[in-house]
Write a structure and sequence with these properties.
single chain; 898 residues; alpha/beta; Dna Ligase, domain 1; Acyl-CoA Binding Protein; 5 domains; eight-stranded mixed beta sheet; eight-stranded parallel beta barrel; 32 strands; elongated; binds adenosine-5'-diphosphate; binds magnesium ion; ATP-binding; magnesium
Length: 898
């Protein structure tokens, strides 16, 4: 097998469609070579090699790779006219990770590899630039020490060992910036760094270039299994067994002096989606400097620079003097970069996120990828590209990450509230959205209060888990491309970065702004769209959803086969869902209305009655309430089908638990408190989820089914008189035998006929069942002899197929996910392999009996994109999900059909 793919000088063995093998970064480095974008030469070690490494270990993988890697290094040497490990004319490389799916900043990179005490002199002589050589060496020892040799800080309050040494040296010298250190300082740093390595690891820093290379390659492989990489994968649903590729690439130097620079750019605005080329760069800097927020980055375009200066309160004089844009500082390079960004966006037909370095006036591209973006930007960019005729409507839909639409449905700050709020500071609008919460200063404390804002000088990949939990993120340093900003946009989380007025003291757990102190636990609010930070909590309102969002919904309707319905229990939910485009109700849980108003008393009376007469008397009181509820829901869904599930939960859920409430019921029913208590304890079950519930209720107490049917049919007939079209579908829950359904079907039909006769009018209705007990799925052909429709209740079906109690699974599911026993939570993502068989088989067997049997799904899975795709593949008529997931399901349903 081939494990190494080379690229360079306009040639490449890889291509963009080889991401699985070469990782995203490697495939795109190859592709850029092929389309004539200047990229330093190098090679990619495949993701398969990473998987082999995980199985076989270091020695075996080095054996397997050695010949190919040595040949590939030769190729780079030839193209760059240098020699790896040579002391006079050394080839230096970067060693970079790159998985199939981009995991920004998740894994580790080493730059300037190949330097040692000899070759640093060679580099200095060759470049005629001592400072550059030693700055590169200092960076290399620092990165290699961190990534490969495990030199980490001792505790979260401490900075890492190298940073500490840097701080000490800078303080002694009385300088602020890395760039203010002179050659002698840098030499001292290298010595001190190496001493620290020897002290902490017990080994000398490796001098041999090849030893360095193999160390770095295997460290990149190892970085696939770090905690932060695992957390990121779980968050994004990236499988653990993909592995990462390793890219080894000739260095280009952005730290060679004032005619060199490094930067990051986006072809469009990743926050808002606007078609504006933007980004940040630093003169005389290398790699991560821009992202890490070590110095204040400068803007790429003049326009962006002017906007930035206004936000930061920087005068035009200072801006031009200290923070000029690339467009102003290096106009020739800027022109070239602008041409490259246009070329790349045109080639990939999507917004690109790129990394570049300028070495002594020459532009090099180091990375391009489809940029991470907010939900709002995702929608705007897709629709803009449609209008620009770059992509068609199907492509627009495929560009939508359905889950991300959720962000657009979230609240924004109320205009009045925000104008009267107290502004504390301004930073950069790094990721739009509105967030109020209590301050925490450490990522692992993000759960300390119910809603938190994570406040940091800057964030790093270690902070990921806390960033997921926090409502918003605020940093004192770093620009629009800082780690915090990029990750927040990826998560659609509100973020303000680079609020320079903030002085954070981790030890005291406070931040100071203009001398005022804000403690951990204080409330603040962030507006990620303007970069403003406010004191206290600010009121929010719902956003409006028209324009591009609406267009995308229209495209979804055009390209979908399945209908999308909603799960709604109240007229209000039904209306919300209808506004989101729901075409009917797939699940109306009647019992959810039992707790409203005076209903609960009658419900309790029914449950506590000792005989049928008592129950009937109580049910008579409930009837008008239920009828009224159904009228409201039918009206909201005028013309669309409404599936109503008959009473389902164990009755014990409705009994009064406090003594006062029990006494109340005793008085109401004219029985003693003791009798009430006895009745309640009689209702207790050891396994309520497998107990007296579902159709077992209606079959033991048929009067309940009679009352509910009557309420449904009467409501439908009443509305018919008002010109509203009600289409009830009466659904029998939790059947395991055909007889259970037959019995309920008889009661329903008899009751409906009775009501028709009484009212002298008729309406159409269906009787169907939920398929949620595995036995019902197995016998679906028989069930379909009675049922007019199936609705897969995949919550219970999952519970019963796995034998996992839904209410207790949180005791072991997180551990199962952690240990990889399960890949995903089966209650969130439908288990296609197992539970999916029941769904598929149930559908097929049902349709064997009734070819046009209507089939749908009403579990939580009905709004989960992967599960929706599965539902489409088994030929369901509709999916049903909670109102706020309707837009997501609509797009997922269309994608499944494209
Ligand atoms: P990440 O996964 O964090 O994007 P990268 O591998 O892209 O990590 O590299 C980190 C930084 O180092 C980036 O800014 C990148 O542009 C820079 N870099 C990587 N390789 C080289 C190289 N050969 N020459 C100069 N800079 C490089
Ligand atoms: Mg990168
Ligand atoms: Mg159920």
């Amino acid at each position: 097998v081939k494990r190494v793919y080379t690229f360079g000088n306009g040639k490449a063995e890889g291509r963009v469609d080889m991401k699985n093998l070469l990782g995203g970064k490697g495939a795109n480095l190859a592709e850029m070579n092929l389309i004539g974008v200047p990229v330093p030469p190098g090679f990619t070690i495949t993701t398969d090699a990473c998987i082999e490494y995980n199985k076989l270990g270091k020695d075996a993988i080095v054996d397997l790779l050695k010949a190919e890697v040595e040949a590939a290094v030769k190729n780079v040497e030839a193209l760059t006219n240098t020699s790896f490990g040579d002391k006079n004319n050394p080839l230096l490389v970067s060693v970079r990770s790159g998985a199939r799916a981009s995991m920004p900043g998740m894994m580790d990179t080493v730059l300037n590899l190949g330097l040692n005490d000899d070759s640093v002199a060679g580099i200095a002589a060759k470049s005629n630039n001592d400072r550059f050589a030693w700055d590169s060496y200092r960076r290399f020892v620092q990165m290699y020490g961190d990534v490969v040799l495990g030199m980490k800080p001792e505790s979260k309050e401490e900075i890492d060992p190298f940073e500490r040494i840097m701080e000490e040296v800078k303080e002694r010298k009385g300088v602020d910036l890395d760039t203010d250190l002179d050659v002698e300082d840098l030499k001292e740093l290298v010595t001190l760094f190496k001493l620290a390595v020897k002290e902490q690891t017990g080994h000398d820093f490796p001098e041999s270039a090849w030893e360095q290379l193999w160390g770095a390659v295997t460290a990149v492989f190892d970085s696939w299994n770090t905690d932060r990489a695992k957390i990121y994968r779980r968050m994004e649903g990236i499988p653990d067994e993909w592995g990462t590729a390793v890219n080894v690439q000739a260095m280009v130097y952005g730290n060679m002096g004032d005619n060199s620079a490094t930067g990051v750019a986006f072809t469009r605005d990743a926050g808002t989606g606007e078609n504006i080329f933007n980004g940040e760069y630093l003169i005389n800097a290398q790699g991560e400097d821009v992202v890490a927020g070590i110095r204040t980055p400068q803007q790429i375009t003049k326009e962006g620079s002017l906007r930035w200066a206004e936000l930061q309160g920087v005068t035009e004089e200072d801006r031009v003097d200290m923070y000029p844009s690339l467009e102003e500082a290096m106009p020739k390079v800027y022109k070239e970069l602008d041409a490259v960004q246009k070329k790349l966006e045109h080639h990939y037909k999507d917004m690109q996120d790129l990394e570049f370095t300028v070495q002594d006036g020459k532009l090099w591209l180091l990375q391009t990828r489809n940029g991470k973006r907010t939900g709002a930007a995702m929608v705007k960019i897709a629709m803009d590209m449609y209008r620009e005729k770059i992509i068609d409507d199907k492509m627009v839909l495929m560009r939508i990450e359905a889950n991300k639409l959720d962000e657009l449905l979230h609240p924004v700050f109320d205009l009045d509230a925000i104008t009267s709020a107290q502004e504390l500071a301004r930073g950069l609008p790094a990721s739009p959205g509105a967030a109020s919460g209590q301050i925490v200063f450490f990522a692992d404390e993000a759960k300390k209060y119910p809603v938190t804002i994570l406040v940091r000088t800057e964030t790093s990949p270690e902070d990921l888990e806390g960033m997921v939990v926090a409502k918003g993120i605020l940093t004192a340093r770093g620009g629009m491309t800082s780690h915090a900003a990029v990750v927040a946009r990826g998560m659609g989380k509100c973020c303000v970065s680079g609020a320079g007025a903030l002085k954070i003291d981790y030890k005291e757990r406070v931040m100071r702004i203009d001398g005022k102190v804000y403690k951990e636990g204080d409330w603040i609010s962030l507006n990620g769209s303007t970069g403003k930070v406010y004191g206290g909590s600010v009121k929010t309102t719902q956003p409006d959803l028209d324009g591009d969002f609406g267009h995308i919904m229209d495209f979804a309707t055009k390209h979908t086969r399945m209908n999308v319905r909603t799960n709604a229990d109240t007229p209000k939910d039904a209306r919300v869902a209808r506004d989101f485009g729901a075409q009917g109700i797939g699940l109306c849980r009647t019992e959810h209305m039992f707790f409203e108003g005076g209903r609960i008393k009658s419900v309790r009376e029914m449950i506590l009655s000792s005989d049928e007469n008592g129950r009937r008397a109580a049910l008579d009181k409930l009837l008008p309430y239920q009828r009224e509820d159904f009228e409201g829901i039918f009206e909201a869904m005028d013309g669309y089908s409404v599936t109503i599930r008959l009473l389902d939960p164990p009755l014990h859920e409705f009994v009064p638990h406090t003594e006062a409430a029990q006494q109340d019921m005793a008085t109401e029913m004219g029985i003693s408190l003791a009798e009430v208590k006895t009745k309640i304890s009689d209702l207790e079950e050891i396994n309520p989820m497998l107990g007296h519930r579902g159709c077992r209720l209606g079959n033991t107490y048929p009067e309940i089914t009679e009352m509910q049917t009557r309420a449904i049919i009467e409501a439908a007939i009443n509305l018919k008189k008002k010109g509203v079209i009600a289409k009830p579908e009466i659904m029998v829950p939790l059947i395991g035998t055909v007889e259970e359904l037959k019995m309920q079907n008889d009661i329903i039909r008899k009751t409906a006929d009775l009501v028709f006769a009484e009212k002298g009018d008729k309406v159409d209705y269906l009787v169907g069942t939920m398929i949620e007990i595995p036995r019902a799925a197995l016998l679906a052909d028989k069930v379909a002899e009675v049922a007019e429709f199936f609705s897969f209740g995949t919550n219970d079906l999952t519970q019963m197929a796995f034998g996992y109690s839904r209410d207790d699974a949180n005791k072991f599911l997180p551990v199962y996910l952690e240990k990889g026993i399960l890949k995903t939570d089966p209650f969130q993502v439908l288990d296609q392999e197992g539970v999916g068989q029941l769904v598929e088989m149930g559908t097929q067997r049902g349709r064997f009996t009734k070819p046009d049997l209507k089939v749908g799904i009403c579990g939580e899975h009905g709004g989960e994109p992967k599960s929706v795709e599965f539902c489409d593949s088994v030929g369901m008529n509709y999916v049903s999900c909670s109102p706020f997931r309707v837009p997501i399901a609509r797009v997922a349903a269309a994608q499944a059909n494209i």
